[in-house]
Amino acid sequence: MKAEVKEPMDLETAIYTFLESDENNRWYTVDKLAQVTGSTSSDIFKVINNSDLFVSSSNSEHEPIVATRDRFRKEEPFFTKLVGALKNRID
User: Fold this and answer.
1) CA distance 71 to 23
2) What number is the average pLDDT over the span 68-76?
3) Are 58 and 52 in contact (CB under 8 A)?
4) Is 54 strand, coil or helix?
5) Measured between alpha carbons, how far is residue 6 from residues 19, 42, 44, 53 in Å?
6) What are the tens digits of pLDDT across the range 1-48?
7) Predicted pLDDT at 72
8) Staple partner for 43: which of 28, 37, 39, 87, CB 3.0–4.6 Å?
9) Contacts from 29-34 at CB under 8 Å and sequence distance 24+?
10) What strands lie across the sheet with 28-29, from one edge to the other?
11) Residue with the larger pLDDT of the pair 72 and 30
């Protein structure tokens, strides 16, 4: 697990930097992003909903999860992209 984001930066940059820094995990829950950025879940939702840098979905526990759009396009399997498009959730 990567260390918490410590540098002073805007929240969008902090989220993006954290998501891109972990090569092993593509998706993170909103709660985890709030924890590592020292922000609230509400603030995380505002940023990801108003930015073209992120995509969101839900995990098997129906929790909202977030990834960068760049990594999603490069690394996510085609079938997952197709299902996401049909659900009108991601990309």
Assistant:
1) 10
2) 82
3) no
4) strand
5) 14, 20, 16, 21
6) 454 554 445 999 999 999 999 888 889 999 999 999 999 999 999 999
7) 79
8) 39
9) 29/59, 29/63, 29/64, 29/65, 29/66, 30/63, 30/64, 30/65, 30/66, 31/63, 33/66
10) 28-29, 64-68, 54-58
11) 30
At 85, list the tokens.
């498009």
Whole-angstrom distance, CA of residue 5 vs CA of residue 19: 11
What does pTM read for this prediction?
0.73
C-beta separation of 35 from 23 below 8 A = no
Instruction: Give whole-number Cα distances, 47 to 33, 42, 60, 62, in Å.
Output: 11, 9, 23, 20
